[in-house]
Amino acid sequence: MNKTGKVIQQIIIHLVFLGLAIWFIIMGWWPALIIEAVVIIALMISIAFIMVHLILVRNIPMITGDIIGDIEGVSVNEHVRDSVEWLEGGEFWEQRSEDGLKLIGRFRKKEGSHTYAICCHGYKNHRMQDIANQAKRFFDMGHNVFAGHARGHGRSEGAYVGMAFKERRDIVGWIRKIVEQDPEARIFLYGVSMGGATVMATSGEELPENVKCVIEDCGYSSIWKEFCYHMWFAYGLPVHPILNICELISKKRYGYGFHDHTAIDQVKKTKLPMLFIHGDEDTFVPYEMMEPLYQACGSEHKRMVTIPGARHAEAYFKGEDLYWKEIGDWLKQYL
Known about the structure:
Elements: H1 3-27, H2 30-56, H3 78-88, E1 91-96, E2 102-108, E3 115-120, H4 132-140, E4 144-148, H5 167-181, E5 186-192, H6 194-203, E6 211-217, H7 223-234, H8 239-254, H9 263-269, E7 274-279, H10 290-296, E8 302-307, H11 315-318, H12 320-334
Parallel strand pairs: 3-4, 3-5, 5-6, 6-7, 7-8
Antiparallel strand pairs: 1-2, 2-4
Helix pairs in contact: 1-2, 2-8, 3-4, 5-6, 6-9, 9-10
């Protein structure tokens, strides 16, 4: 069913509930009206708790030992398998987050190079499947490569996903680690999906001059807008008050709300050159989110690139020639 069909279906459902309420009022059936109201409120609260659990709670235990090969709940297709195994064979890096979590990453050293790619994976990509091919490509282009398991993913600790709000500070920690080891480092940030939102959120933080530019691929403009989109079009649920309740639960349990430090607010503060990439067939993080991010970006050096026919996180191979030409030109100019 297309978007229009879903909207019509949801409007009909809402009109049915509204019609029942009006009918109960007209007929003076106040107990029935009260029962309907209580049932709807209880249902919305229950749905909110379920949604928070499904979306934010870690769904795979912290992975230990050798994770080469398939593991339960994490699929790696042949398109990325070799690159995933290459990345997982890198040097083992560890840091403590500002809130005490052990975070793990992999580092691939390019001898003689002082340029570094920090690659940020997307939502629930526990083996960094969505950035492994790109990380290998960056290495082949002559850059050192670091890719970290985001909190709540893979080998890193964390009982929940930070949706880029928490992760932005973790990336600052990884940047500091690189600069401590190589004061001459020239760093660029690259991220896909939630990783794209993460590098945008990081760009608004106070960063060392070693960070030269940012490349984001299909990142969302804010947690709130991304959840709004999925709640309405994917689940057919009313945004208000369910998502408001979800946000209250998240603030209470996990310490952040869906309006906190949004990507769009963070890019307003950045002066780093920013390359925005998005596929025009993306319906997971809507393509329409790229333009507002670009317009909000405070950098004097920014560019938008649309990859025709690419769905979510497909841009790097659907439009391979254009994608890598734009990235190559960007890095030559700003790194």
